[in-house]
Each structure stands twice: as C-alpha cells, then as structure tokens.
C-alpha cells in the first residue's frame, strides 16, 4: 500500500489512537492533522484502508483503530528514529556508568528502559559464546585446595574452589597461574578451556594437577555463565494497559514469568536495516503474546544478546524503538569498559 496520502491517513490514525486510546473518525483527523483534503476524501481513504485490513471499526464506535497489519505498515515506514533528548541521554549514561557489577548493570538497564517506554523491559545477559576471558585468578587456599576465579569481558565474575589429589606449593600455583593467563586471556571461554586441557599433559607434576583442576573449574564456570538469563522490570505497566487486551493479561504475565518462551522469541527476532526488530501480534491465536508487541535489538559484541520491551500492540513505536536502540548502545559501551 504505497498511496502517499493514505499512508499519511494511516499514520495519523495510528498516532491519534496510540495517544488517545479512542477510535479515530475522519472529522477528527481533518481537524488535528494537515491532510489538505476534505473529511469526505479522508472517509474514502479510510474505507480503502479498511478494505486492505489496515484499520477496523470496533463494534460500538463510528471511528477506526489500527489492526496488527496497520501497525506493521506504519512501523515498516518509519525511516528515521528521533534521537532521545539530552537529559534522557545524560540519565542513561549516568545510571549505567554508576553500576557496580554485571548484575547491577542488567537491573539498572531494565529499570531505565521501563521508565523511558512505560512498558515491560527485558534484557538477556550477555552470552558466553561471544564473551572472552579478561582474567583468571588462582588462589591457593591450602595444599589441597585452589580457588579459581573467572573474570570474563561481560563482567560476570564467577568462582569455584577445586580440590587437588596431591599437595601443591604456592610456587606450583603461581607457575600454573602464569601459564593459565597466557593460554586463556582474550579467548572465548570454550576456547580457553580447550587450550588449558590440551596443555595438561605437556607440563610436569605437580603443575599438571593444578592445570587439570583449572580446566575442570573453567568448564563448570563457563557452563554456568552460558545459561541464558534475563532480567525484567515494569510488569506493573501491563496492569495499567488492561483495556488494550481483549482477553485477560493473565497468560501474558505467565509467559513473562516462565521466561523460556520470551528468551526463544528474542533470540529468533531478526533486526532490520535500522538495527531494530519489531514483532506485532502472533500468527498463532493461542500464543499468549498474541495481543502484544515486542521491540528489541542486540547489544554487546556481535549483538550477541538482546534487550527490548513488550507491551500492547497500541504502542508508541517511534519513541520505543529510539529508546531501545539508545539504551542498547550505552549498554554495549559500558560493558566494553
């Protein structure tokens, strides 16, 4: 549907309905928007838009509201995203740069995104596949125990005490530490484990025992950090949008609580040339998220993890898309430091 004026009418209907929650009539469009045509012409355009399935009439109103297809047409034609205001950008930078660790960063990110968009905000933790080793620390607890600390570039510090079958000295552990750092720094966690494992048989005892224990600990720590985790904020915003759902929001809240379906959805969403992915509704009517829209984008190295917002299809898409993209960029920058 490429008729310029009808696209303009569709855009006006979407904007008015998003902000007023009221079905939109032709007279109101003429009064509020500079369409340059009569209300009769707008009525005709609305008739064509309705025939094409882009708008529809609710039972009790003479006005029209956008359909999922209408929202999709509107979103696909947003060519440029308005940048956030200077105070908003400053607030993002200040809040995220003040975080103490990765968990704090994730919590602050969703809280901030929820406040900016007035929707439910979700963020995946960075995935281990794109996370490299920043540092590995070995601390000798006693002659039979070594503490292995993994510090990856995503900031999620994890540690494990491993027991050794033979006694080791402080110098044995220091020798092993130097070798482990040379083998692991800057490598993906999985590659680091493989490198340490391949070296075990090439070094003398008792360093061999320490390296074997380190390889086992790194594998376990890497597996733990590989678990897909997400953080969420703003579910209370859904409760304020109950009028946007024909059915109860119960299934939506259950899907958010379960997280697995949402994680899968986020991983499957593909970004367009604007660097944004937008899912509106669902093909399967039994999908608990059928009456929702999700706006998401990747962040971090290779956009390996996603963050985004979920809300009713009646959403301020331009502002939401701009906020999601801006927060993702700041989050990527914070995690690089």
How would you describe what is shown here?
The protein is an alpha+beta fold and 337 residues long. The chain contains 13 helices and 10 strands. It has helices spanning 4-20, 26-32, 39-51, 68-76, 86-97, 102-117, 170-184, 189-199, 207-226, 235-239, 250-258, 260-268, 317-336, and strands at residues 55-56, 65-66, 120-124, 133-142, 145-152, 158-163, 230-233, 277-280, 292-299, 305-312. The strands form 3 sheets. A 5-stranded antiparallel β-sheet has the order 7-3-10-9-8, sandwiched between helices. Strands 4-5-6 form a 3-stranded antiparallel β-sheet. Strands 1-2 form a two-stranded antiparallel ribbon. A hairpin with a 5-residue loop joins strand 5 (145-152) and strand 6 (158-163). Helix 7 crosses helix 9. The two termini are 46 Å apart. The model has no long low-confidence stretch (mean pLDDT 87).
Q: What topology emerges from the helices and strands here?
A:
Elements lengths: L3 H17 L5 H7 L6 H13 L3 E2 L8 E2 L1 H9 L9 H12 L4 H16 L2 E5 L8 E10 L2 E8 L5 E6 L6 H15 L4 H11 L7 H20 L3 E4 L1 H5 L10 H9 L1 H9 L8 E4 L11 E8 L5 E8 L4 H20 L1
Antiparallel strand pairs: 1-2, 3-7, 3-10, 4-5, 5-6, 8-9, 9-10
């Amino acid at each position: 549907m490429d008729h310029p004026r009808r696209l303009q009418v569709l855009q006006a209907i979407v904007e008015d309905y998003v902000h007023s929650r009221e079905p939109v009539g032709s007279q109101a469009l003429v009064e509020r928007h500079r369409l340059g045509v009569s209300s009769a012409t707008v009525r005709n355009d609305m008739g064509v838009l309705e025939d094409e399935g882009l708008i529809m009439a609710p039972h009790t109103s003479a006005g029209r509201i956008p359909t999922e297809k209408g929202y999709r047409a509107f979103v696909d034609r947003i060519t440029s995203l308005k940048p956030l205001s200077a105070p908003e950008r400053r607030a993002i930078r200040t809040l995220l740069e003040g975080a103490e660790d990765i968990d704090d960063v994730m919590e602050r990110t969703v809280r901030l995104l929820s406040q900016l968009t007035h929707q439910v905000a979700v963020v995946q933790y960075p995935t281990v596949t794109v996370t490299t080793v920043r540092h590995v620390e070995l601390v000798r607890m006693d002659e039979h125990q070594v503490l292995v600390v993994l510090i990856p570039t995503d900031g999620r510090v994890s540690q494990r005490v491993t027991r050794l079958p033979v006694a080791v000295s402080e110098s044995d552990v220091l020798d092993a530490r130097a070798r482990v750092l040379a083998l692991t720094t800057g490598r993906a966690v999985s590659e680091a484990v493989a490198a340490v494992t391949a070296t075990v048989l090439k070094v003398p005892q008792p360093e061999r025992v320490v390296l074997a224990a380190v390889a086992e600990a790194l594998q376990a720590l890497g597996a733990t950090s590989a678990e897909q985790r997400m953080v969420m904020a703003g579910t209370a915003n859904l409760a304020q949008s109950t009028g946007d759902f024909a059915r109860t929001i119960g299934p939506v809240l259950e899907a958010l609580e379960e997280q697995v379906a949402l994680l899968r959805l986020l991983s499957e969403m593909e970004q367009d040339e604007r660097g944004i992915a937008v899912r509106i509704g669902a093909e399967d009517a039994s999908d608990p998220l059928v009456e929702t829209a999700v706006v998401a984008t990747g962040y971090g190295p290779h956009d390996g993890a996603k963050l985004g917002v979920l809300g009713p299809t009646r959403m301020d898409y331009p502002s939401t898309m701009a906020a999601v993209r801006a927060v993702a960029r700041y989050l990527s920058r914070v995690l690089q430091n």
